[in-house]
Amino acid sequence: MGPTLTIGHMTSNGELAHTSEVPQFGLGTFLMSKPGECKDAVLTALKLGYKHIDTAMAYENEEEVGEAIAEAIDTGIITRDELFVTTKLRRPHAVGNEEAQQRCKESLVNLGLEYVDLYLVHAPPKDPYHRKPTWLGMEECLKKGMTRAIGVSNYGAHHLDKMRSYATFMPSVNQIEVHPWLQRDGLRAATEAVGATVMAYSPLARGDKVKDEKLQKIAENLSCTPAQAAIKWCLDIGCITVPKSSNAGRIEENLGSLTVDLNTQNEQMRGLDEHYISGWDPTSET
Ligand SMILES: NC(=O)c1ccc[n+]([C@@H]2O[C@H](COP(=O)([O-])OP(=O)(O)OC[C@H]3O[C@@H](n4cnc5c(N)ncnc54)[C@H](OP(=O)(O)O)[C@@H]3O)[C@@H](O)[C@H]2O)c1
């Protein structure tokens, strides 16, 4: 449900290789720790029409995501071709070429899938020496068909720029924290400059900002909920976004963001920016 975007990997001659279609809106699955919580949330989302699920080996829920997907496919809710699954290489595992490939295989086993649609380096490897071999391993995952696309997460402009010296395929996506209170014009432009699409994580600033008075006023003017306005802003600026909820009502509410029209409140949304970081920020590390 909702729009799709074309993502691809810029090569040295400026062309986009290995392109694919990604549903712009999806479900995040970070902090779903109770047994069964993640499976229930993913299944609820797929039944409602979500087509994109964002997980990570670090979230320790790839198995439950896989169980929900298997059940949804078995019961005819969705086909594998319609579904887009993103997972990530843990930062402590981002130490080399072979390691990246091995961890991708392990994620596929956890998920019960033959391939994922997008595989991301969760954050720039701590040791800069590991960045090139890790990315070359990611490129192997792409070439071997373990994933349809590769990308990065939490990369700053300087990390992306450095990749030009060693990448055959530049990342298709940079997943970073972006929301109305952290609009990041500079990093979004730097991401687009390397041919990548921004994936906005924590679109609700981890829930911290849903009760923001200014946002509540905007939502009132739009006759939508505050969460819907924040999510739609991320979509309208061209990001892929993956709000997390474990609650069936809020999973449905967040999907409703797709039909919100922000036109009369664009300036007010723009005015919410205050460089608010709700999570971690490896983008500024050296
Ligand atoms: N690459 C990275 O480093 C990174 C970092 C952070 C996140 N992510 C990804 O991005 C996804 C989203 O980010 P996030 O989980 O940090 O935060 P988020 O989506 O901004 O916010 C999630 C929080 O908001 C609440 N919430 C959800 N919908 C709501 C609504 N309609 N009204 C009020 N509250 C609502 C949720 O509670 P309930 O569950 O109770 O509804 C939860 O506490 C993650 O799940 C993960 O997949 C990636």
Please characterize this protein's 3D structure:
With 286 residues, the protein is an alpha/beta fold. Helices cover 36% and strands 16% of the residues. The strands form 2 sheets. An 8-stranded parallel β-sheet has the order 3-4-5-6-7-8-9-10. Strands 1-2 form a two-stranded antiparallel sheet. Helix 2 (62-74) links the parallel strand 4 (52-54) and strand 5 (84-89).
| Cα shape | globular
Question: Could you state the order of secondary-structure elements as H and E?
Answer: EEEHEHEHEHEHEHEHHEHH
Counted beta strands: 10
* Name given to the CATH architecture: Alpha-Beta Barrel
Helix fraction by DSSP (H/I, runs of at least 4)? 25-40%
- Largest beta sheet: what is the strand line-up? 3-4-5-6-7-8-9-10
Mean pLDDT level? 97
- C-alpha Rg (nearest Å): 18 Å
Give the helix tally: 10
CATH topology annotation: TIM Barrel
Q: Which cofactor or ligand species appear?
A: NADP nicotinamide-adenine-dinucleotide phosphate
What's the story with the biggest beta sheet? 8 strands, parallel
Q: Which CATH top level class fits?
A: Alpha Beta
Query: Could you list the spans in which at least 5 consecutive residues all have pLDDT below 50?
Result: none
